[in-house]
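F.,

This is the one I mentioned.
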């Protein structure tokens, strides 16, 4: 079964998405997500100009060989653009292979290890009443686990509050005050626990904004509120910094949504400095690479927590769900539902019911792309914000 054609689809049904469509000589079609938020056209060009010409005529069944060919053959390895492109090819080929087998993808990964996939939703608010109302809304939608983000007094707009995308001109610039944040966040979780009790799993995303000692201080302050995890507490390029955090707090740690390969995790996993791996299939080389990463993590009792924001398309989300269902060391799945326009373009078989996701039983990954619908939504440039300290210094957003 040979690859006969490949098409790169760029569409913007509310957010920009890049999708690779691969077609075989016997008519099977597979889809892969290549979306890189804020740098989408870089991956589209990488695929069209450099990768697609290498695919035509290759055996579509040789997924591992194709992965290695694209990773090692380019010489310049890793990086978000390269790994998103490889991920798109990889997922599309797994989609084709599962369709050829007449099975949902998770069956080819060893079958189901659970009946459903626990998901967490996002709750946020500018002040405490808004936060509490948002948590109630997520619970009414069926979520059994909830990430909590709150505004900080004295700061206008910060990560997790409102829509961060800027579609006109330059990125928005936000102002950050670490001391104000460290004082405020524990009071938010104290109020949430008082309102909703001890059983509701709560998560929080620091979004890389603290130094290791600041992260250790926050983790220790949050211990009374029994968080499911504290995410991206410090920029993880400095992997040794997690040693300091781990020494001072028992709050579970999740890291990795900006990582691109298993190599980025070596120290963190081998030294058991984290509890959850946060990579997305879309940004970490696809199903092939993620399965290897999770098997490596399992040796050290580290679990999965696949990244699932709205800038991961339903194609990328579906691929992650098949992994979630199959692997033994599943932890939790982030789930931010897409807009109705997005679901008009991406027709999906996965479902969300009573707090649990399931990829469905459709052969393949269970997502098809309506190219006519996609053509209605033209690409629109968009930037994520830039963060600055009060004195104007550029800081991590």
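My design for it:
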């Amino acid at each position: 079964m040979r690859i006969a054609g490949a098409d790169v689809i760029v569409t913007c049904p509310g957010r920009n998405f890049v999708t690779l469509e691969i077609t075989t000589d016997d008519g099977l079609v597979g889809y892969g997500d290549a979306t890189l938020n804020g740098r989408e056209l870089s991956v589209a060009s990488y695929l069209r100009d450099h990768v697609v010409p290498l695919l035509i005529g290759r055996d579509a069944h040789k997924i591992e060989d194709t992965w290695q060919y694209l990773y090692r053959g380019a010489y310049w390895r890793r990086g978000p653009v390269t790994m998103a492109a490889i991920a798109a090819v990889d997922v599309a080929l797994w989609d084709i292979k599962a369709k050829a087998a007449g099975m949902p993808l998770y069956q080819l990964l060893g079958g189901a290890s659970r009946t459903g996939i626990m998901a967490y939703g996002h709750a946020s608010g500018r002040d405490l009443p808004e936060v509490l109302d948002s948590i109630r809304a997520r619970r009414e939608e069926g979520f059994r686990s909830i990430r909590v983000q709150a505004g900080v007094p004295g700061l206008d707009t910060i990560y997790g509050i409102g829509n961060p995308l800027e579609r006109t001109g330059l990125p928005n610039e936000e102002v950050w005050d670490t001391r104000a944040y460290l004082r405020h966040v524990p009071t938010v979780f104290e109020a949430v626990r008082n309102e909703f009790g001890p059983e509701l799993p709560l998560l929080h995303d620091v979004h890389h904004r603290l130094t290791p000692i600041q992260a250790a201080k926050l983790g220790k302050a949050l211990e009374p509120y029994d968080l499911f995890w504290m995410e991206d507490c410090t920029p993880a390029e400095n992997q040794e910094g997690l040693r300091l955090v781990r020494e001072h707090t028992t709050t579970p740690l999740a890291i990795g949504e900006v990582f691109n390969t298993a190599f980025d995790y070596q120290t963190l996993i081998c030294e058991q400095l984290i509890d959850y791996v946060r990579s997305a299939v879309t940004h970490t080389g696809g199903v092939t690479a993620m399965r290897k990463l999770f098997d490596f993590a399992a040796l050290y009792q580290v679990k999965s927590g696949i990244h699932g924001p709205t800038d991961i398309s339903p194609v990328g989300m579906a691929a992650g769900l098949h992994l979630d269902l199959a692997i033994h060391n599943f932890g939790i799945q982030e789930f931010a539902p897409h807009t109705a326009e997005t679901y008009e373009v991406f027709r999906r078989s996965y479902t969300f019911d009573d707090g649990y996701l399931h990829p469905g039983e459709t052969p393949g990954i269970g997502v098809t792309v309506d190219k006519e619908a996609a053509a209605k939504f033209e690409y629109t440039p968009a930037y994520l914000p830039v963060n600055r300290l009060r004195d104007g210094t550029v800081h991590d957003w």
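The mean pLDDT is 96.

Talk soon.
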